[in-house]
Amino acid sequence: MPELPEVEALKDFLADHLVGREVVRVLPVAISVLKTYDPPVTAFEGREVTAVRRYGKFLDIEADGLHFVTHLARAGWLHWRDTLPDGPPRPGKGPLALRVALETGEGFDLTEAGTQKRLAVYVVRDPAEIPGVARLGPDPLAADFDEERFARLLANERRQLKGALRDQSLIAGVGNAYSDEILHAAKMSPFKLAASLSPEETTRLYEALRTTLTEAVERSHGLAAGRLKAEKKSGLRVHGRAGEPCPVCGDTIREVSFSDSSLQYCPTCQTGGKPLADRRLSRLLK
After folding, report:
1. What is the pLDDT of residues 43-73, one digit of tens each?
2. Given Cys at both, which of 13, 66, 72, 97 links 30, Cβ 3.0 to 4.6 Å?
3. How many of the other CB atoms lie within 10 Å of CB of 227?
4. What Rg, from alpha-carbon coordinates, does the chain have?
């Protein structure tokens, strides 16, 4: 799933390629991708793009006061095309969900792999009309997101750190991969209760949050859209690397699986050497 660093890079890439250009066609291939109908998606046609913004994991393309907002969900992606194919795309069983064409002949495709179709496109007059945008918590890279504000968010949070970091209404933009990376950098168990952090631990987690995301954004900056997935994977230390040695201490990275996701962590760095059990059974193997 694209998270804050990748969406931030996509925002910068699209700003360079879209602003000042006219959208001539918006062609839905999978109707299920459209989550709003008034104004219709065709209302975006004939407008000049004026800005590209990011809200958490949402991308917002503004054109003459109208907003084309997309959330790529777990398996969606944006593919830039220097030259779009001739003729309209054909509906079918392929991954293509929607195409946006510019007056220059360039444009982009939104695609989604797999059978769970969660890719979403909204055309609205105000992004705040979208429930997912309206409920977003603060952006962790915003200038006003300081340690004091972070501490207040966690003060009464009774969930485990892994779940708290992934909650978009608490902090916007962090998902499964970067929550693993942040907790590894902070040397904290994903099962530790957020409200139990000491002031020193809060500082350590805040610094890990900001540093991990900032470095990921810097690695992705300037990359073409097609290279962002590979860059994300290459920069991850523990997420998706179960069975490999931890790059910090050399211990074997372990995994906890859930019904629809998994987490990865280093026992030596994060849990005092103890392997974590499936949290549906217990927090730690004694």
Report:
1. 999 999 999 999 999 999 999 999 999 999 9
2. 97
3. 12
4. 20
Report the amino acid identity of residue 265.
Y
| CA-CA-CA-CA torsion sign (70, 75, 81, 87) | negative
CA 229, CA 10: separation in Å to the nearest integer? 11
Q: How many alpha carbons lie under 13 Å from residue 44 in its C-beta half-sphere?
A: 30
Half-sphere exposure of 114 (CA within 13 A, CB side): 11
Residue 25 to residues 22, 28, 93, Cα–Cα distance (Å): 9, 10, 22
Burial of 268 (0-12, 13-18, 19+ CB in 10 A): middle
Output the six-digit token pair for 153: 């968010």
Task: List pLDDT tens digits, range 173-229.
Answer: 999 999 999 999 999 999 999 999 999 999 999 999 999 999 999 888 776 677 777
Per-residue tokens: 49:
């793009």
26: its two tokens: 């918006």
DSSP string, 5-68: HHHHHHHHHHHHHHTT-BEEEEEESSGGGB---SS-GGGGTT-BEEEEEEETTEEEEEETTEEE
Q: What pTM does this model have?
A: 0.92
Q: Where are the alpha helices (DSSP H) in the chain?
A: 4-18, 131-134, 147-155, 161-166, 176-186, 199-220, 228-235, 267-270
Confidence of residue 278 (pLDDT cuts 50, 70, 90): low
Peptide bond into 39 cis (omega under 30): yes
